[in-house]
Amino acid sequence: MAGQGVGVPGADAATAKTVKTAETAETAVLIVGGGPVGLTARALLERWGVRSLLVEKHGELSPFPRSRLVNVRSMEIFRGLGIAAGITAGAFAPKYGRIRFRDTLLDHDFATAAMVGVDAPVPESPVTGAVTSQDRLEPTLLAAAEAPVRFGTELVGLTEEADGVTALLVDRRDGSRTRVRARCVLAADGANSTVRHLLGIGTGGPGAMGGFTTVVFDADLDRWSADQPAGVYFTAHGMFAPLYPEGGWAWFVPTPEDTAHADWAALVTRALGPAADVWVDVHVLRVQHWLMNASVAERFRHGRTLLAGDAAHAVPIVGGLGMNAGLADVHNLCWKLAGVLQGWAGPGLLKTYEAERIPVAHRTLDQAVANTKLLLDVQRRRREQLRTGEPPPENIELPWSDRYFAQLGLILGVRYHSDAVLTDDSAPQEPQGTDYVPDTTPGHRMPHLWLAPGRSTLDAFGEWFTLLTPDPEDWTNATQGAPLRVELLPAEHTGLCGLDRHGALLIRPDGHIAARWPTRPDPATLHRALAAITCAAPPGTTAGP
Q1: What are the contacts of 170-178 at 24+ separation with CB within 8 A?
Q2: For 376-385, what is the mean pLDDT?
Q3: Whose CA is closest to 186, among 329, 75, 293?
Q4: Would you say residue 477 has pLDDT above 70?
Q5: Alpha-carbon distance 53 to 25, whole Å?
Q6: CA gap 242, 220 in Å, rounded
Q7: Is the dihedral of CA 30, 33, 34, 39 positive or negative?
Q8: Worst-scoring range by mean pLDDT, 7-21, 359-373, 418-432?
Q9: How far apart are CA 378 and CA 399, in angstroms?
Q10: Deepest of 247, 352, 364, 447, by most Cβ within 10 A of its Cβ?
Q11: Contacts of 19 by beta carbon, 8 Å cutoff, 6+ apart
């Protein structure tokens, strides 16, 4: 669409004359959307030295809790940004990394299950996931970078040209309009993405799965929760979740009829249980209605514009997969944007973003949809039992059993297939399921191994490629072209990594294995591999947008 513009119908025609050319700003990357995904992209790009501007149509960070779970892989990303400890400090204690199933919140559990990697440390990672509300997470992400942010600023038009994208922005407070010229646009503007609609990118999948309401309220529920903590209580009358360690609750429920006249305090009290009107005083603070979507965009890229997070894939909340998948999107994308914009990678590298993340989005969506259907089914069946006076079975088996939140295989076992990975002679493998098995086949996330006390292999990755080898002495002059560091791999790990004492693993900045040489590669092989993985342009040509 070079040289062509798209915009909200009628937006340009009536007010284009108010846009002054002198007001056009420039940036390397325009980030659209100020949720966790957009804010994390801003921090990642700043770490790479890439200028960005983030615009968010709302006037401030969201006051609603929304996403509740930061999984192990996301915490690994935040560890790399240096903010994991701060997130953990504001989160619930690990004992809240559990789900409980009850008829009402005021009843006893009839089942419970741990959130693997959240309720306790796991040997597969140097970090532990956390239960924390999105409105507690976002301020930490906002403070993690200094790149400019414009709240109350909405994107209403895009024009893509040969060497950049011009975005038309409107200030929602005073109606003034400006233009921003960027070399690339990263759209993280939610499930109803304006950018996606402007570009005409369709979606596939189940679509809308129903209307839901979140009620944020205060109440003293310690009597029924303090000794049996959980991040989520699933009941026959909706889902309850503690919001912050210091207090506050949320009730998630299918949107009832006639919301305009709903007595939300009474509805929450009734859902809590028959004795709640005597024992509990409910104070409703906020109410939000929303649509649970389940879809994946047909494409994650259109020219210089790339979709991430809910703009690329709308994932039901059950299982806590959606936000975390979006964080993995930008962790995959931002180093590629940096390489292309800084000239050490070719523009073809951006094509690998779609190739790698679209399959993951479909697997994640399938899991989340299955989780949602099973949850709604168990709630429906239990409500029917309660209506007939039938007690719960002595040994109830949940449809997903205790493995419902055992997602390490899904989040740590991702294997990418694209031009940014050099495959070896390993036999092709099916995607990992519930369980995670560490694997050093190219495309996989490099397993967590201790390089030294307190220092993980994951701590060796950052704004560079990493050559992990037990024999680093001869690689001191290998760092040319793409940014590369050589790191000692302790001899005790060579067997797991499939290397002899001279072999090497080439790790991408996002921690995924780009190439594996069981025995020592020569420098020319390494340089050819880096050029291939980064889609680097031949000498004398211009690389990147």
Answers
A1: 170/11, 172/57, 172/59, 173/59, 175/15, 176/18, 177/15, 177/18, 177/19, 178/19, 178/23, 178/24, 178/25
A2: 72
A3: 329
A4: no
A5: 10
A6: 11
A7: negative
A8: 7-21
A9: 7
A10: 364
A11: 168, 177, 178, 179
Band of the pLDDT at 7, cuts 50, 70, 90? Answer: low
Distance, in Å, from the CA atom of 461 to the CA atom of 81, rounded to the nearest integer, reads: 11
pLDDT at 427: 56
What mean pLDDT is reported for the chain?
87
pTM of the predicted model as reported, rounded to 2 decimal places: 0.91
Task: Give dist(CA 344, CA 242) in Å, integer.
Answer: 47
Q: Which residue is listed with tokens 């560091």?
A: 485
CA distances from 495 to 248, 500, 536 (A): 50, 7, 32
Residue 363: burial class (beta carbons within 10 Å; 0-12, 13-18, 19+):
middle
Nearest to 542 by CA among 186, 165, 185, 163: 163
489 DSSP 8-state letter: P
Q: Which two tokens stand for residue 146?
A: 């200094």
Q: Are 141 and 133 in contact (CB under 8 A)?
A: no
**Six-digit token string for 399:** 């449809």
Give the tens place of pLDDT for each residue, 217-275.
999 999 999 999 999 998 988 899 999 999 999 999 989 888 888 999 999 999 999 88
Helix/strand/coil (H/E/C) assignment for every residue in 146-199 = CCCEEECEEEEEEEEECCEEEEEEEECCCCCEEEEEEEEEEECCCCCCHHHHHH
Q: Which residues contact 107 (CB under 8 A, 6 or more apart)?
A: 235, 273
Instruction: Write the secondary structure of 236-297 as one string of H (helix), E (strand) and C (coil).
Output: CCEEEEEEECCEEEEEEEECCCCHHHCCHHHHHHHHHCCCHHHHCCCEEEEEEEEEEEEEEE
**Residue 313, strand partner residues:** 296
Give the residue extent of every domain in the chain: 4-91+129-205+298-354, 415-533
Which of the four CATH numbers 3.40.630.30, 3.40.50.720, 3.40.30.120, 3.40.190.10 does domain 415-533 have?
Answer: 3.40.30.120
Query: What CATH number has the domain spanning 4-91+129-205+298-354?
Result: 3.50.50.60
Beta strand residue intervals within 40-97, DSSP E = 52-56, 69-70
CA separation for the pair 296, 365 (Å, rounded)? 8
Tokens encoding 80? 């790399």
